[in-house]
Amino acid sequence: WPRELSGVGHPRPSDGGSSSGSESSKDSSRCSTPVLDAERHERLREKMRRRQDSGDRWFSLEFFPPRTANAAVNLISRFDRMGAGGPLFIDVTWHPAGDPGSDKETSSMIIANTAVNYCGLETILHMTCCNQTKDDITGHLQKAKRLGLKNIMALRGDPAGEEWEEEVDGFNYAVDLVKHIRNEFDDYFDICVAGYPKGHPEAESYEADLKHLKEKVLAGADFIITQLFFRSETFLKFMKDCQAIGITCPIIPGIFPIQGYHSLRQLVKLSKLEVPQEIKDVIEPIKDNDAAIRNYGIELAVSMCRELLDSGVVHGLHFYTLNREVATTEVLKRLGLWKEDPRRPLPWAVSAHPKRRVEDVRPIFWASRPKSYIYRTQEWDDFPNGRWGNSSSPAFGELKDYYLFYLKSKSPREELLKMWGEELTGEESVFEVFTCYITGEPNKNGHKVTCMPWNDDPLATETNLLKEQLEKVNRRGILTINSQPNINGKPSTDPIVGWGPSGGYVFQKAYLEFFTSSEIVTALLKVLKKYESRVNYHIVNVKGQNITNAPDLQPNAVTWGIFPGREIIQPTVVDPVSFLSWKDEAFALWIEQWAKLYEEESPSRMIIQYIHDNYYLVNLVDNDFPLENCLWQVVDDTFELLNSPQPEPSEVLR
Amino acid sequence: WPRELSGVGHPRPSDGGSSSGSESSKDSSRCSTPVLDAERHERLREKMRRRQDSGDRWFSLEFFPPRTANAAVNLISRFDRMGAGGPLFIDVTWHPAGDPGSDKETSSMIIANTAVNYCGLETILHMTCCNQTKDDITGHLQKAKRLGLKNIMALRGDPAGEEWEEEVDGFNYAVDLVKHIRNEFDDYFDICVAGYPKGHPEAESYEADLKHLKEKVLAGADFIITQLFFRSETFLKFMKDCQAIGITCPIIPGIFPIQGYHSLRQLVKLSKLEVPQEIKDVIEPIKDNDAAIRNYGIELAVSMCRELLDSGVVHGLHFYTLNREVATTEVLKRLGLWKEDPRRPLPWAVSAHPKRRVEDVRPIFWASRPKSYIYRTQEWDDFPNGRWGNSSSPAFGELKDYYLFYLKSKSPREELLKMWGEELTGEESVFEVFTCYITGEPNKNGHKVTCMPWNDDPLATETNLLKEQLEKVNRRGILTINSQPNINGKPSTDPIVGWGPSGGYVFQKAYLEFFTSSEIVTALLKVLKKYESRVNYHIVNVKGQNITNAPDLQPNAVTWGIFPGREIIQPTVVDPVSFLSWKDEAFALWIEQWAKLYEEESPSRMIIQYIHDNYYLVNLVDNDFPLENCLWQVVDDTFELLNSPQPEPSEVLR
């Protein structure tokens, strides 16, 4: 949470600012149409204003950077889960002691980068300035801009020692940082500053502190988030006092749901805030009962938030989550602010990087690995919109160490072994793992298979539509890793397959992607001749031997939507060229995530290695989306052919 | 027809040539996907090779520039009609006496430009070189390139007088022109040269003439078209002789169906060819019977063409049409080469200009006036493909004099008056004209209305699907000028609404565009409130007062197609910005084409002027394409509202 201790400063002309270099300037390129989601292209301060104007209420979530890489993986999952509730933004605190601007997986910079780029969340990066050189700070800001971060919370930070003194021309107060950002980066960043409803503990007076706050706003801050407080009156008085001295920007109350006795005590020590007696009276007797304290904290936060919202002057609430999920989510649900399953603007997770704001087409292959797709395409100068195009020959990033971090399963090795088998006895035991993942049934040791190397989450609801057929084919060695049913015009509001604005219709071509043996591929290719004009296929092995009937290596649109008053959106394609980049990743996952669970030279490892070396990766598209999906028939025919009496040798040669 | 008289020249290295600046070099832009029609992006010589490889037989058509602007209008209509039969290319002869490189409507350059750009025909422009300076010729070639012409027939041309002498360093022979084109324009143009099956009359010998031909090919010609001949043996021997001396490029026989006694005589005089006795014997007795001669000519041409095609060495036939339609079309039909209604690659007429090769999206407004659309967008640097985009704000060319030429009706003033009324008695007589155009019934004076200012052709087959409803609304003053039914996934091979490759599905949103009075617009707007989420509308008057519910002025896709192994194609949009450019044209046509038929200040003219000044142009889109078209209900509701008892004044004010 905000830990800034003071701030004084100078006025700036007006809020309008120059817009040179501003990200909000309209792109004039013919193709760059913000089609589906206007909000995606707005600045945070504009989104805030739009929400206020429309009377919508919103919330935001504060997190701090984790200490370990494992904790980072978990925090990112938390971003995804809490992001699903629809926060207007999240913010990531700045820890000067933790090398916050570095490239470490746990740095503030990289965590914020992940939130924006991989989780698609509007994000504010905190930044403190005291005890730092101008060049350091400029360097951090340039890096933030380069990574696609668009919002900075400008703070002073804690002085290094007791004997802190102001430096001449140095960054002594948050206002200096605000001015520096505006001087060096013009209007590029939205800037947030901290407010102290009880006055800053080190300020000469409450009034003097208000004056410092106004100086920060005049210097260029766009809105204010307050330090936590325990009574709604505290905030409402503060807000009134701010308005009285002419602070007109949004002021967002910081809400701290009490989650435990120790975290509260630590907080009180750091913030020098006093906990009201009536709260102490409740908490002291139950101090060893975590659940009781948390429930009390939730009640307290809900009732204070209700008072704030009922006042009519509060439009958004900012939550200090302490990186925990339960209490904040519960408060938000009780307040009705948590929007479970918000409408998907596109069928895949959109990145919030400004460079990607026009992106609306992706290959289907990364459907379960959107972060990997975003990572591997981060160096692209522009992103496909409207059409993928077959001449794009996109340069996908290499599979590097860093990439393995984001690919690392959330489950530890022991758990993966329980799911995928402590010991494999043959290809059939691999088939069994795939089958259990599809059915949701426990494996023979009683463990459910909730993730696979190609998919870190349980089966998508949409895939459930195909469950029965998928189970049947996985049992027989068609090891599916991606699939979608055909859809011939369902409403865009359909809870399972819908996406985009309401009033539209969504469509899909049936898609099936799987690993399988060369024996099955041989039979499959014979069968596919019968479906030549209807089914497109791409078949490739780890060495890159590639068989396809795609015309001119053109992409095939497999998901599209028709909306009132819009152009056609086709967010997912099967692109033959990208498939070869995906192939490298898909095969590598056998080894990196599965084979390496076992000892070198162990039979289990050799089984996975054998599959990796000899199986083919296949994708099939049924182009005739209005008819019944023929891909199951293709697979059935293949098995039938395999089961039929062996042909004469002469027949094989044909 | 080719009138070159001689040619000698020098060798060039090989046919491969350098490809710098070549139009065949692949465009590397992400969006530039040649999606639907690979052939559209090939060079003529490649198309020819592909046809030969696939065993397809083809034909081409030769025309000469007309003498008058009226004749030019008719010739362009002929291009459209004969283009529908599927020629591989047409060629336009070069008339040195007719200022062939000028901007006159009747110049060779402008006629060829029209064929390529407005009629979408692959076109060869003839060019002669004798008695011309290098600079003149370079200027012509540069202009041809600028206009999008890609093929040149390089000829010597007739010397100016009897006393012609070779000029040192001048252009004395066709081969000089071939070399000049290759020197100055590298491999940009495909070059054709003339061959003489009987040897050139001025050549020293048949053998010497063959040598000259070989020199032209070595200098860089891509293929040969022959002078006409009367017996298939003549051509087949010539072809054998060419191959014997190492001419390997395609040699296309020039076919001249005899169409009349006088044209044959004139031809014989010019070409110094001798008509075989057996032909003279047939023709002389019937020389005053045009029909008999033409029938004989057709028979003769058909049997000669059959012999040529049966020889197995002839893949394409080139026809000297003499700008006439009947004989050539008949020969082609009998040979089975005429492909009536060839598959439409897109629902609108594609331009053959190389700059437009990626174009696959257009506003619907110009559906009946594609030439006007191409004319008004000719200065664009790039053309929409995949998506129209709302930031394109395209600059449409002004309505100029030149434009009026292409807009001029094919029907003369007297005929238009018969169709549209010698004398109008009120707005109702205008309604009557619109209604007769829709129904195809004669007007009260017994004349059918076969064209309108907004549509120079009879009603499209597709519009016929809506005939009954259109009749009803036109009678009541909803004066429709454009419409399409909704289509929810018909096969792309559907004879009426289909387009694009087979195996696909085409879709449409229902569209209706009409002029109507402000009284009807007022009622319509009230009715549209009920359809707010379903129907998009744009309503504008001549002054530009504009009412719309289009979200963010975004375009609305109203025609799209889904094809096997392709991205989505959406060739037609309703674009709010372009609509305002179309509006100027649509309103101007009332005056330019209709009002001006009448005397100034005449009541008829004032009626049209009144409509022009006071009516609104309206377009409606029903976004719910899977449901029954609701636009007729919208119109019915509007009339019902108008017929209901007058509201209280207070209600009007609301």
TrEMBL record, chains A, B:
Record domain MTHFR SAM-binding regulatory: where: 343-643
Species whose genome carries this gene: Anser cygnoides
InterPro entries: FAD-linked_oxidoreductase-like, Fadh2_euk, Mehydrof_redctse-like, MTHFR_C
Highest taxon listed in the record's lineage: Eukaryota
Pfam families: MTHFR, MTHFR_C
Subunit structure, as described in the record: Homodimer.
Catalysis performed (reactions): (6S)-5-methyl-5,6,7,8-tetrahydrofolate + NADP(+) = (6R)-5,10-methylene-5,6,7,8-tetrahydrofolate + NADPH + H(+)
Record's GO cellular component terms: cytosol
Function comment: Catalyzes the conversion of 5,10-methylenetetrahydrofolate to 5-methyltetrahydrofolate, a cosubstrate for homocysteine remethylation to methionine. Represents a key regulatory connection between the folate and methionine cycles.
Name of the featured protein: Methylenetetrahydrofolate reductase (NADPH)
Keyword NADP applies: yes
CDD domains according to UniProt: MTHFR (cd00537)
Cofactors required: FAD
EC number: 1.5.1.53
UniProt similarity note: Belongs to the methylenetetrahydrofolate reductase family.
Protein's pathway: One-carbon metabolism; tetrahydrofolate interconversion
Keywords: Allosteric enzyme, FAD, Flavoprotein, NADP, Oxidoreductase, Phosphoprotein
